[in-house]
Specification:
There is one protein chain. The chain has 124 residues and is mainly beta. 0% of the residues lie in helices and 49% in strands. It is built from no helices and eleven strands. A hairpin with a 5-residue loop joins β5 and β6. The chain is globular and about 40 Å long.
Length: 124
């Protein structure tokens, strides 16, 4: 049974940093495409960053230069380091896994497994 469990969310002031973690079980993260998404209540889920089995990465424009996706293969953990946070980064953040991919991406419909989310709140 595949499980993705996010942690590391919280409240931070504008300009601050957070590192989100996503612990995976039931799958080998090194073989999947993984990604971070976020969602504000009432809005569609949007991609934040993705990474593939070859460690290639892709980022959505809002996080470019501020967010870094990475993973610890040995521990099977996905990370999202977020710097220079802004109030508009406030959202529920989710990690997801896609078993069948050829490059890093953030197409919501293609991801097979999702975590329960971790809330990030950035105050001005």
């Amino acid at each position: 049974q595949v499980q993705l469990v996010e942690s590391g969310g919280g409240s931070v002031q504008s300009g601050g940093s957070l590192r989100l973690s996503c612990k995976a079980s039931g799958l080998r993260m090194s073989l999947q495409c993984m990604a971070w998404f976020r969602q504000v209540q009432g809005k569609e889920r949007e991609g934040v960053a993705g990474i593939d089995s070859d460690s290639r990465t892709t980022y959505a424009d809002p996080g470019k230069g501020r967010f870094t996706i990475s993973r610890d293969i040995a521990e099977n953990v996905l990370y999202l380091k977020m710097d220079s946070l802004k109030p508009e980064d406030t959202a529920m953040y989710y990690c997801a896994a896609d078993r069948y991919c050829t490059k890093p991406h953030m197409m919501v419909a293609d991801f097979d497994f999702w975590g329960q989310g971790t809330q990030v709140t950035v105050s001005s």
